[in-house]
Specification:
The chain is an alpha+beta fold and 136 residues long. Helices cover 37% and strands 18% of the residues. It has 4 helices and 4 strands, in the order E-H-E-E-E-H-H-H. It has a 4-stranded mixed beta sheet with strand order 2-3-1-4.
Length: 136
């Protein structure tokens, strides 16, 4: 396994993103560099090391926890949690989490529902594109 934290120089780090977002949203491909501003105002060069297809990480740029803490030190904790459990207990897990963390603004979504929501968004976009193509 490749250690993407090893041999990183200064403000050059590696990241992984959803393939659709890379291509259509950011107009980037694997090997390209994405420049973002760190909390300090320093520019961080993120080399796109890989693209993910059809995952729950659509819309996210994944970097190591160490690099995230280094460039965004005031952000404490995590905002996304992946929880594995017995499929038959999914509603039980969801209810317990919602009850115990409701004061923190938790939003629980099953991976099945999250992935399905991406498919629902694509259909109107393709219908629009097909309609536009018919007009041209």
């Amino acid at each position: 396994m490749v250690d993407y934290n090893k041999n990183q120089i200064g403000n050059i780090i590696y990241g992984i993103a959803d393939q659709t977002v890379l291509e259509w949203g950011l107009h980037k491909k694997i090997g390209d560099t994405l420049k973002i501003k760190a909390e300090s105002g320093q520019v961080v060069n993120i080399i796109i090391a890989g693209g993910l297809k059809a995952t729950v990480f659509q819309g996210y740029l994944l970097i190591s926890e160490n690099n995230f803490a280094r460039f965004f030190p005031s952000v404490a904790g995590s905002s996304v949690f992946l929880i594995e459990g017995k499929p038959g207990f999914a509603d039980t897990y969801k209810n317990i989490l919602n009850t115990r963390f409701e004061n923190y603004g938790i939003n629980t979504v099953s991976t099945k529902d999250r992935l399905a929501s991406f498919s629902e968004l694509r259909i109107p976009i393709f219908q629009y594109l097909l309609s536009w193509e018919a007009l041209v």
